[in-house]
Amino acid sequence: MHLDEFSTLETKLSLVYSMDLTKSPKISSTFAQKTIVMTELTHRAGFVNIVGKPNVGKSTLMNVLVGERLSIISSKAQTTRHRIMGIMNDDNYQIVFSDTPGMLKPKYELHKNMMSFVNMSLEDADVILFVTDLFETDEEIEDVIEKINHSGVPVLLVINKIDLSKENQLEEVTAYWTQRIKAETVIPISATESFNTERILQEILDRIPVHPPFYDKDELTDKPERFFASEIVREKIFLNYKKEIPYSTEVAIEDFYEEDSIIRVRAVIYIERNSQKGIIIGEGGKALKKVGTQAREDMEKFFGKKIFLETFVKVAENWRKDKNKLRRFGYDQ
Ligand SMILES: Nc1nc2c(ncn2[C@@H]2O[C@H](COP(=O)(O)OP(=O)(O)OP(=O)(O)O)[C@@H](O)[C@H]2O)c(=O)[nH]1
Ligand SMILES: [Mg+2]
């Protein structure tokens, strides 16, 4: 560690501890000073990147670990399209989780961009959480697994959805994956039941370096408010429409205007073809109204404020295959 980093951190810690500790009549200032140095020598921080095939529960797990609904979740594969950071802060550590899109063989330009988020996250991790469930195989992702096995980064193999496990299934799945992934340990969990997720935390803390925090301790994510607003609308689209519609849709927030007692949000739902407009809007506008109401309710919970949400539908012809449009939607790397 650089000496100047040490002194900045020491100043910060001095401020914190002079408030907390020296106020207490039982704790002398010498003790407070010692605690500062101890914390400096023991504070851990690192990047923990969550990867795996689509639909195995990566986003559910990150939300559980961070304790906030940062990533959207759906029963359909390929819900997550970006790398989303979720920061877990404690006095003694800071873990910067990254949720990533499901690993797949790219079929169009959007997939390539999604996979570049995954590849990047393999490079800057202190620990990789490779998540699978009881049902997935390594089909289509053999090359990414190869990359993980040669990355030199410690891998924790997380087997999710064990609430659905039948006799011997967990043993069989564990045997299958331990032959493929070079993992330091295997952690069976149920993300939806928060079962055994504490063990993940312990295994991470054993592996991340002693380091000052990378971000302010009150920060929770790297993404702006508009991103979460658009993701909430997209989640409701994944929930309410079938087949190609969720995959053909992107959401852009054109206005996010915060007033004292309300946030005014203008969301544009982009589809690939004019013929999809009718499906999105639905008979008498019912389908779009439902999406709007559900999204508004979730935004009010997320932002803790009343929301006025307007939704519009526009066509962005074949946006999934168009590099310029993808860049406009924030997929540029
Ligand atoms: N039964 C059960 N279902 C789970 C568990 N964890 C997640 N799920 C469900 O699995 C589905 C996919 O969850 P996500 O968290 O969106 O999965 P993901 O890996 O982020 O998926 P992509 O973003 O598409 O890569 C959702 O319907 C979740 O409710 C679990 O522990 N048990
Ligand atoms: Mg996800």
Automatic annotation (TrEMBL):
One of its GO terms (molecular function) is ribosomal small subunit binding. It comes from the Bacteria. Residues 160-163 are annotated as: G4. InterPro entries: G_ERA_dom, GTP-bd, GTPase_Era-like, KH_dom-like_a/b, KH_dom_type_2, KH_sf_prok-type, P-loop_NTPase, Small_GTP-bd. Its main location: cytoplasm. One of its GO terms (cellular component) is cytosol. It is found in: Cytoplasm; Cell membrane. GO terms for biological process: ribosomal small subunit assembly. GTP binds at residues 52-59, 99-103, 160-163. Residues 44-210 form the Era-type G domain. It is a peripheral membrane protein. The keyword Glycoprotein does not apply. Residues 52-59 are annotated as: G1. Residues 99-102 are annotated as: G3. An essential GTPase that binds both GDP and GTP, with rapid nucleotide exchange. Plays a role in 16S rRNA processing and 30S ribosomal subunit biogenesis and possibly also in cell cycle regulation and energy metabolism. Belongs to the TRAFAC class TrmE-Era-EngA-EngB-Septin-like GTPase superfamily. Era GTPase family. This is GTPase Era. The gene is era.
